[in-house]
Amino acid sequence: MVSGSMLARESNRGIDFCGGKMNSSLRGRVIAVATALVVVLVGGCQTTPTRKTAMSAPNGAVDPEDYLPVDCLLPGQVRRIGNTTYLTPRRPVRTSAIDCRIRGGEYVAYDRADYRWALKVWLESAKQGDPEAQTYVGEIYERGIDGRPDYRQAIEWYRKAAEQGYRRAMRKLGYFYEKGLGVPQDPVAALNWYRRAAGLEEDGLMYATQLRAEVARQVRLRLSELERRLADYRRQAARLRQALQETKRRLNRLGEGADAPLRGELERRLAEQERALQASLQREKRLRALLEQKSEETRILRRQLESRRKALAEAEARLQQARAELDSLYARLETTRSSDAARARELEQAIDERERRLAELRDEVARLDAEARQLRRRLASGQEEVALPGPSIEIVRPLAVVTRDTKPRILYRENEAAVIVGEVEAPAGLDRLLVNGRPVAPDEKGRFRIRLDRVRPNMDLRIQARDALAREAVLEFTLVPEPPPARDEGDFAGLEFGRYFALVIGNNDYRHLPPLKSAAQDAQAVHDLLVERYGFRSRLLLDATREQIIAALGEMQALVGEKDNLLIYYAGHGKLVEGRGYWLPVDAEPDEITRWIPNSTITDLLEITKARHVMVVADSCYSGSLSGMAVPRPLQTAVTKVSPRWVKAMLKRRSRTVLTSGGLKPVLDVGKGRHSVFARAFLDALQGSGSLMDGYRLYQRIVEPVRQEALRFGLDQTPTYAAILGGGGISGEFFFVPRTGALADAAVPEWRPADLAARTDQFAGFSSFSRSSRRLSPL
Prior knowledge:
single chain, alpha+beta, Immunoglobulin-like, nine-stranded mixed sheet, seven-stranded mixed sheet, 17 helices, disordered N terminus
């Protein structure tokens, strides 16, 4: 059987398949290759050699890992021009492993984290000017071929794709300018790239988003320096407590009839001391969290390294045994070859099998050795240091408007005071916050409020945040009057929203981790609400393992079509290690990271999912690591009305967004009644809506209730809403269409099992698959 690699070797010998005369032997070789290729294409996955590995599923079932995306090289096409037969170059595609095998493609099976293969797949097409391939090459350099990102190379490839109008590359460039990766940090350039990627001007709409500025440069401090700073903050907090107590005693001694000016001065001093104490405690809390996170990451890396060393030793022992067995077979063959031809043929077959096994073992040893070396480097490079992020500023409201080659603009209503609400973060400690040169005092959570009673048109504002390490984040924008309300744009009649699917996951009963109280109840309630009120076809997974979650994601990927909507809700444990987020299934072990589900796996799956709009709702610790890029939002100050023109524009575009319960911080598993704080707000917002609601308005409805309820438990928890990094979304939005009220007759087609007849046979390996109905039984 002719494989894709054999065809590549044939083409590498310099055979010209395109045009010209061919001699008879060459023509014969071409026809032979073409015939073999046709057999490969017709035979599908049956022509792929089957080898038993640790990843193989039992009893012929589909391995859930087969649904994970791979960089696949498909065979070339056999074409004829007149009497000339030729073979086109192999074609790169990003698809699932099982789809790649079915189509006779080639991919790396044993080490999907090796970006060298991915670069080999896409580089040639990228050099030929394919913008999709250029974007993939940019992403490979962004992630780092050897684990170290090369942002300059990534930007070069993103620019090439963006210049051809490829919007995904434009969004990537916006993200790089926003974060200052490989280029000087430039919020205006970032927002302009986001605006161009959104393409809203084609529909006569403006791009609106939240403003954010941050210092991309991280300072690496030795643990000893960080511990010294922590001790300083503790001593400072102790001095502030002492001063606070002294002020309170002086106030108590004064009594009610004391001198009013003196009492007022002491009360003012008391308020300032309380604010200073809270700020000092927050700085201490942030540094303590960084130290605890670093300690946990180091412990996990050490456990991983020990596990790899043990696996490497076992693999090397198996390799030595296989070599000895092979040597013995060769010796027996030498003595048997001349005396027993039949026995010699049996030994030759056995030797071939041992050679294949030996090659697999060599690959396994090489992989484990590479993983162990990488873990040792990571431990050695960061064991005594902690990366301290710089300060950041974000304008929470109102939204900013982005236009070409100008500063971002924030709208205000004439004859009314302009109120700007923002947040500032400075893990190293905030030295000062200035607005047009004047100091502003944020609260203990870093939130600040600017009220401007007299605003002149085109008034510029400059906000500066400087931290204790002298790093400064700057945000500049212009205040402009809000335009008059738009004329009535009609209703939503005739809009096609597509079908709605959901995968709802709730994990309570962990086998190796502390159990949760509300995740399963939250998932059940969300599932019921989506089905009953919004008409979703929803699958509910409770206490799901890693294999079950990945399998269900793969099933959903195959179920949805190009006009459909998919919501994924996850409630359970989450983890953040070296800036990478993970979902923890119920069989996750505390220090075995290979049993966790990285966020990158989720985003890769969403990238190849056909659904037009996808929203991930993640109620877990550190879920904010999924998000990162700005989402285009409707330019309306009210949150109760959705513009039909905006909806029409969003329905034409793909979206991949994530609503998280608490950013890059721990979140509460408790709240009112049986649900978490986030789940309660999420359910209330959807249950109370009788009209069309987009993802951003859903976020607006839950952010303050979650904040306020979390504060009752002493936790700073703020939901986030953003585009998913690398998820393949461009600039659309996710819409919730209730089955009751004004939208009861909106164009949301019914789900029909017959539509899936041609696409579900690949689920035959799952117990949930029913051949009689040709669908997954939970749906």
